[in-house]
UniProtKB/TrEMBL annotation:
Protein's UniProt name: Alpha/beta hydrolase
Residue stretches making up the AB hydrolase-1 domain: 22-253
Key word Cytoplasm present: no
Keyword terms: Hydrolase
Entry's Gene Ontology molecular function annotations: hydrolase activity
Superkingdom of origin organism: Bacteria
C-alpha cells in the first residue's frame, strides 16, 4: 500500500493486525527497507504492526532532493496521522533509531507511548569529548569526508567497507561475491538517498534531544557489537529517565534481522513490561 506525504511523494507501507490493537511502527536501517522487520511483522500477535520504506528506499518514491533525517521524521509524522494511530510505540533500528531521535526533537513524545532504540548512538562522529560514535569511537569528521569522497567515487566499495565493519566475518568472504550482493541491495534504493542519508546521519547530534524522551524506552544493543560502541548504552541510560536494556550477546549490529526470533521475543518482554 502507498500513501502520499506532505511533499506529495509516494511512501510504501504495510499494515497488519486489528485496528483497535495498540500500534507499533517499525523504522528500518540505512541502505535497507521494511524487510528488516519481516519476522516480527508477520509473527508478533496482539498489536497493530506497521512497517514502511523511508523515502528514497525500498518501494517508496526515490526523489532527487529533500533527503535528510528531518524529512524522514516528517514522513513518520505524516504516516501516523494518515493511519490515525494513537499512543504509538516506535521501534527504530540503526538509521531508523536516528529518525526516531529526530522525530522526538521535532515533535516531542505527544502521542508516542514508548520507543525502542536498536543499536544507535545519538552522535555518530567522534571527537576529543565524545567517544561513543560509530566504529568503536574512532569515526571522526575527517573520516566522514573520506567516506563521502568514496561514495562519490565508488559507492559499492564504500558500502562493502561498512558491511565488513558491521559484520567482521565478511572479511573471510570473497570480495567479488560480496560486491555482487551489495550491488543487488543498492539497486533497491537510490544512489542519492544512500549518500545523502549518510551525510545527514553523520551531521546530526541528538545528545540534547534524547533528554526529551520521557516515556518508557527500550535499549537494544549488541555485544561485542561492531558498528556501535556498547558503552553507548550507559550514556543513554543516564540521560533517559525510564529505560529497559537488553544486550544481544555474541551479536553484531545486524541482530535485528540476523536473529529475528530472538529480537521479537525480547521485544515482547519489553512490551509486557510497559503494558
Amino acid at each position: 500500500m502507498f500513501f502520499k506525504n506532505k511533499d506529495n511523494m509516494e511512501i510504501f507501507y504495510k499494515d497488519s493486525g486489528n485496528i483497535d490493537d495498540k500500534p507499533i511502527v517499525f523504522l528500518h536501517a540505512w541502505g535497507s527497507n521494511h524487510t528488516d522487520f519481516d519476522y516480527t511483522f508477520e509473527n508478533l500477535e496482539g498489536y497493530r504492526r506497521v512497517v514502511y520504506d523511508h523515502r528514497g528506499f525500498g518501494n517508496s518514491e526515490k526523489p532527487e532532493k529533500k533527503i535528510s533525517l528531518k524529512h524522514l521524521a516528517n514522513d513518520l509524522y505524516d504516516l501516523i496521522g494518515y493511519l490515525e494511530l494513537k499512543n504509538v510505540i516506535l521501534v527504530g533500528y540503526s538509521m531508523g533509531a536516528s529518525v526516531l531521535y529526530k522525530y522526538i526533537e521535532l515533535f516531542g513524545t505527544n502521542n508516542i507511548s514508548a520507543v525502542v532504540i536498536c543499536d544507535m548512538t545519538p552522535k555518530m562522529t567522534c571527537d576529543n569529548e565524545w567517544k561513543y560514535g560509530i566504529l568503536d569511537g574512532k569515526y571522526s569528521k575527517d573520516d566522514v569526508l573520506e567516506t563521502m569522497a568514496l561514495h562519490f567515487d565508488d559507492l559499492t566499495e564504500a558500502y562493502m567497507q561498512l558491511y565488513k565493519a558491521i559484520d567482521p566475518s565478511l572479511n573471510e568472504k570473497n570480495d567479488r561475491a560480496l560486491k555482487r550482493m551489495i550491488e543487488i541491495d543498492l539497486s533497491k534504493n537510490s544512489y542519492y538517498s544512500i549518500t545523502a542519508m549518510w551525510f545527514s546521519l553523520c551531521y546530526e547530534d541528538f545528545r540534547k534531544s534524547i533528554k526529551k524522551i520521557d516515556i518508557p524506552t527500550g535499549l537494544f544493543f549488541a555485544h561485542p557489537g561492531s558498528l556501535i560502541n556498547p558503552e553507548t548504552v550507559e550514556y543513554l541510560e543516564s540521560h533517559i529517565k525510564d529505560t529497559y536494556t537488553h544486550i544481544f550477546e555474541e551479536s553484531t549490529h545486524s541482530f535485528v534481522n540476523c536473529k529475528p526470533k530472538k529480537f521479537m521475543n525480547e521485544l515482547k518482554i519489553f512490551l509486557e513490561r510497559i503494558n
